[in-house]
Amino acid sequence: MPNWFMLVLAIAASIGVVVLVVVLRDRRSSEEEVDPDETPDVIEYMTMMIGVVYAIVLGLAIAGVWEARDGADATVRREAFALNAVSERAAAWPEPERSRLRAAVEEYVHYAVHEEWGEMASGDGLTGQGDELMASINAVVGSYEPKTDAENRAAYAIADQASAAEEARDDRALDAGPTLPPLVWFGLVAGGMVAVGMVFALQIQRSPRELILAGVHSALLAFLLYLVWDFDAPYAHDATALKEPFVMLFPRAAG
């Protein structure tokens, strides 16, 4: 199911629930029992405080998952550019070492994008085969004995970039899981339900203005919660965008 379709369903469901509750309550209550003028001041104060506190918590959650998503993007870029530098600097090496190194890099990229990414999206993290393919790159780098000064300088640069790629891979393993723990998610969902429920405590009526405001309020909460969910596991929910550096630098292997 596409992410945009899930967002539309979440917003439509939140608005539908608010309208349905208001309609059902209005049918079961008499005019005397549902009088907005009789809403106690303490309920208005509590609604305001709950809204402010929940907005702060939700804002911190969005900031946290956005930072994690941005960090995941930076990690993938570092890994892709480091591997591209390894492949490009191999031009200073003679054959067949140059072809061996480039083939090892492309094999790793192909596996990481087409196979390992799916494991990360499912929450299993990095795979042993990916570790072996990265080790094969380092093995090719370490096995060649430079014969000229140019090859020696290239060897040092290639070794540095290979180490940078391996370090970025390790960082990618740390970013594979969700950012927010289940307890935080429980608080966000429960707080959203309470924030919407407090709207009914204010005894809103079935007038178009009140229904529109209540629907917009619930739709906004649904959208923000969806935003947190989408950024919470970037390798699962935003995989195509994160793969872009590999696809751009290694179109044949990652395409």
UniProtKB/TrEMBL annotation:
<feature type="transmembrane region" description="Helical">
    <location>
        <begin position="183"/>
        <end position="204"/>
    </location>
</feature>
<protein>
    <recommendedName>
        <fullName>DUF4239 domain-containing protein</fullName>
    </recommendedName>
</protein>
<keyword id="KW-0812">Transmembrane</keyword>
<dbReference type="Pfam" id="PF14023">
    <property type="entry name" value="Bestrophin-like"/>
</dbReference>
<feature type="transmembrane region" description="Helical">
    <location>
        <begin position="6"/>
        <end position="24"/>
    </location>
</feature>
<keyword id="KW-1133">Transmembrane helix</keyword>
<feature type="transmembrane region" description="Helical">
    <location>
        <begin position="211"/>
        <end position="229"/>
    </location>
</feature>
<keyword id="KW-0472">Membrane</keyword>
<dbReference type="InterPro" id="IPR025333">
    <property type="entry name" value="DUF4239"/>
</dbReference>
<feature type="transmembrane region" description="Helical">
    <location>
        <begin position="45"/>
        <end position="66"/>
    </location>
</feature>
